[in-house]
Amino acid sequence: MKKTILLVKSLMLTGILAVSCNDDNDYKCPEAFTGELTETETNFTGLWKLKSIVTEEEIDLTDDDIDNPTTDLFSQFTECQQDVAYNFNNDRSYSYLAGTTVTDCENKQTISGTWELNEASVLSLVVSCAKQSSIIEVNETNTEFTIETTYNFVDVNDISVTSVTTSTYEKETN
């Protein structure tokens, strides 16, 4: 189970956020995003909750003594592991929230930074002296976005599986 928790944390964070180390003293942290939002960005603001995680390869992450690999990783997660969201604010700040709304979750996380979404659907985040940019796909009604990433998983049998993973976030409506 601890492997699954560690996998979930790294899966959620690396989907959009990556932290890099650099021993070069000339390295300068990227500046926070500032300025007015574009129309595209204004439409994107709000709370986006993780809705699904699907892989191309079947993977079994649950240590339940049953060999039941599936491409639906989200269904293999606990309620706390499924509790992931991004909140994109109109002042360019954002928060990554993990395990913050479900009762009794261990390892709650809130990470904050700044964001930008350009016309080519590249979502860029700046946090902790790092910048990560990812192409996302927003549906026509602006109610869901997906991000595709390749991950290396370790299943319950300690077998490494590399697979393209699609995470879908759904926008919360009031």
TrEMBL record:
Pfam families with a match to the protein in the record: DUF5004
Signal peptide limits: 1-18
Keyword annotations of the record: Signal
Top-rank taxon, per record: Bacteria
Protein name: DUF5004 domain-containing protein
Native organism: Aestuariibaculum marinum
